[in-house]
Amino acid sequence: MRSVFFTCCLLLSIGMFAQGSMDYGNGLKINLNEDGSKNLRFILWNQIWMRSTDMNPGTLVGDEPTSNTVDIGNRRLRILAYAQVSPRYLIVTHVGINNQSFINGGVAGGGGTGGNGAGKKPGLFFHDAWNEYAVFLPQKDKKFSLTIGAGLHYYMGLSRMTMGSTLNFMAIDAPIFNWPLIEASDQFARQVGLFAKGKYGKIEYRMSVNKPYATNLQPVDAADAGLARAVDNNGNPKWSTAGYFEYQFLDSESNFLPFKVGTYLGTKKVFNLGAGFYSAGNSTQSSVNGNINNHDINLFSGDVFLDMPIGKKENKMAITAYGAYYSYDFGPNYLRNIGIMNIGVNDPNFTGARALAGAGNAQPTIGTGNIFYTQAGILLPNKAEKPKLRIQPFTAYTYKDFEALDTGLSNFDIGANFFIDGHHAKITTQYSSRPLVLNNGNKTSKGEFIIQLQIYL
């Protein structure tokens, strides 16, 4: 029944989006002067998820014990606007909602039923809001450019995927650990502060100094230092520093906005090597025999990105590949379990072995330790002058080695993008296998199949 449901959804979606324009152009752009050098542009997008999710052991959905749930939800509904007031001055505003399901993600404090149920009327909030000024404009005859800015921003350093665009992922979503502070000491992967960006020849740089959001989790006291577990508690936060530096061997990528492209579909020849960091003092706490210990957060990453056409030009084929290594230190045994758009809660009457990560689709995601991530995809041939449908199969693999766990964990993803009008109208299908450690010491895995409908203007 589930397979029939998803097959019907996929066919209906292809028919619905078949009317999408093949020539997007500048989109929703308003010129403020005759030559368009002063302009206002709007970008709108939504990502709708239809899922069949195998739930972690001991999960309740809507007070009903369940091992699998089929649902539909709003993964992202966003609006971004920027105004190029002058060649040097830019204003950016980005608002939206995330993760609204039929049962949660609604207005804060909403009850389970009625006009403001727990899954209804989510609060619109700012993702980005900053101004920037180009001190040294990028010019063909000059190697160096510099722009400075301030506000709630996405120039958070660390890795390419930490500043990834949600409009053009190759896989259905980011792996989440690329945003290591997500909704702890940041606001949906952003902090408020000052940033500088620019280029020097083939080198692109991004640096920022920010005030993290306050956290106040209380650590559980441990009798032995080896069992102490750090939690987010930064009091009056110290300023954080972040940076990302990238060498672009082939085509130069735009740094007009911070959002890094996930796959160019062969429209550029890109080969980049990057490295980044994030550091914030006294950001977590642990407790040993009643003594509170403060710990710094020190995060480092190195990555490589490749995107280029392959084969005969008339076939319009392309490959995309990305690999990243993360070294995370949040303090002893720090670990966060996260489930995207998680609709499950713990069943108090369950008597079997539970997942240490909790209920629903939660899994060990972020922690002190090391993470390796890689993804690769290929855009299949299509000789049509303006192909109406392009297909890009992809796969991704993650290996996580967290200090808090006695075993390494592997994630596997496989899927395909169906491009009706590039990233502007696409359908993505993906099956993901997530690892679980049970409270009896055993390991297992659960799966999730997702169809995403995306459109942006």
| Largest sheet, strands/sense/barrel | 16 strands, antiparallel, barrel
Oligomer: single chain
Enumerate the strands of the largest sheet in spatial order, edge to edge or round the barrel: 2-5-6-7-8-9-10-13-14-15-16-20-21-22-23-24
Poorly predicted runs are 1-21
Q: Which percent range fits the helix content? A: under 10%
Question: Which value, in Å, is the CA radius of gyration?
Answer: 23 Å
> What pattern of helices and strands is seen along the backbone?
HEEEEEEEEEEEEEEEEEEEEEEEE
What would the principal axes of the Cα set say about the shape? globular
CATH architecture: Beta Barrel
- The total strand number stands at 24
Helix and strand content put the structural class at mainly beta
Terminal Cα separation, in Å?
Answer: 34 Å
Hey, roughly how much beta strand do the residues contain? over 45%
Q: Count up the domains.
A: 1
Would you tell me which CATH topology applies?
Porin
pLDDT averaged over residues: 93
Q: How many H/I helices?
A: 1
CATH class: Mainly Beta
Signal peptide: 1-18
Keywords: Signal
Protein name: Porin
Organism: Paucihalobacter ruber
